[in-house]
Amino acid sequence: MTIKAEIVVIGAGVVGASVAYHLTERGARDVLMLERGQRQGLGSTGAATGGVRSQFETDINIKMSLYSLGFFRDWEFDCEYEPAGYLFFATTDEQLEYLERNVEKQISLGVRDVEIVDTSAIKRLVPILNCNDILGGSFGRHDGFINPLAVMRGFTDGALRRGARLELGTEALRITADGGRVTAVETDRGRIDCENVVICTGARAAELASGAGVELPVEPQRRQIVWARSGEPLPVGLPMVIDIGTGFHFRPAREFTGAAEGSRDFSANDILFACPDPNEAPSVSTKFDESFCENVYERARHRSPFLFGCSIIREKCRAGLYENSPDHHAILGASGVDGLYLANGFSGHGVMHSPATGRALSEIILDDGASFLDVSCLGLDRFTTGKLLHETAFI
């Protein structure tokens, strides 16, 4: 077991791998990633659906997305970026006005090819949709899908090529500090002396942070996905489709297999659909609840007879964990303990914002501040100063 490292990144999912990648890109060489699983991708990264979008409400989420989508598009590593688009639709005047305000802001911040669309355009984009009660929506052509495991593997390979190390099957038990400064990470395989630690452990981050005296307001919450198959192929180029009022959404299904390869496997007839459950209590359960299928199908009954007629592929239905912060925005940067840094609370946006997150953390650690993008509004201190952010489109 490695007994010393300059920087220890706890958690080697897509966020932790991105932090290591960007640190080594900047010249840091003594970087050690710890992963409690026997292989990467067994946590939230492997359960993610791989959606990416710039259609957000807050400036910081839009800017994080702009950087990250550009990264995915231009990266030398193939992460299977597919700009199929995101469609948000509205069924009330208030919802449509909300989308109109968002699009105006997105365009002002540099988002390209996002627009307000009317009902007839929505019907052309998604011919399987019941549009009788839809007033309009917003559509972003550069939003779409990526392969989360391919992204994770690309970050990991890049970090390892530049000298980082990865220890699998190693669980961080506690972070020790002396005089308000990080000194070591205690693991189930021994102690690692270090100068800096980055917590990237997703939904379980709060417990690890608390051992170092940091109160991290992140709660785990189960999110479930129904995998279904239609009797005929889906419409070509089907985007992600989201009801802004209920959060019900669906998209073509992609099964990402092989954390080492990040390979594609999908059928032209397969589709995913889901809806946030407002009654889902915080927990670390990843057991799929069969009754969830009934709830989602009730949404599908009205919204799309095509969806309602699809057959559930129960062995492919799954549940994963969101790591929710109180305002559903990431918590990035310093923790109040010298040498201890946070990359947590993504609330479902960890994969899509992983490039921006990794670069921000690398600059904060090495330069004492992120210069490519001001992420200070995502600091932990906002929960004590009351400067919380607000994002309605939380799915």
Question: Helices and strands in order, then pairings?
Answer:
Elements: E1 4-10, H1 14-25, E2 31-34, H2 44-47, E3 51-52, H3 59-74, E4 86-90, H4 93-108, E5 114-117, H5 119-125, E6 136-140, E7 144-145, H6 148-161, E8 165-167, E9 172-178, E10 181-187, E11 190-199, H7 205-210, E12 219-229, E13 240-243, E14 249-252, E15 270-274, H8 291-303, H9 305-308, E16 311-312, E17 318-324, E18 331-334, E19 340-344, H10 354-367, H11 382-385
Parallel strand pairs: 1-2, 1-11, 2-8, 4-13, 11-19
Antiparallel strand pairs: 3-7, 4-6, 5-6, 9-10, 10-11, 12-15, 12-16, 12-17, 13-14, 14-15, 18-19
Written account of the structure:
This protein has 395 residues and is an alpha+beta fold. The protein has a domain at 4-46 and 149-219 and 326-385: FAD/NAD(P)-binding domain (3-Layer(bba) Sandwich). It has eleven helices and 19 strands. The protein has helices at residues 14-25, 44-47, 59-74, 93-108, 119-125, 148-161, 205-210, 291-303, 305-308, 354-367, 382-385, and strands at residues 4-10, 31-34, 51-52, 86-90, 114-117, 136-140, 144-145, 165-167, 172-178, 181-187, 190-199, 219-229, 240-243, 249-252, 270-274, 311-312, 318-324, 331-334, 340-344. Helix 1 packs parallel to helix 6 and helix 3 (59-74) crosses helix 10 (354-367). It is globular, with a radius of gyration of 21 Å. Mean pLDDT is 94; it is low at 258-263.
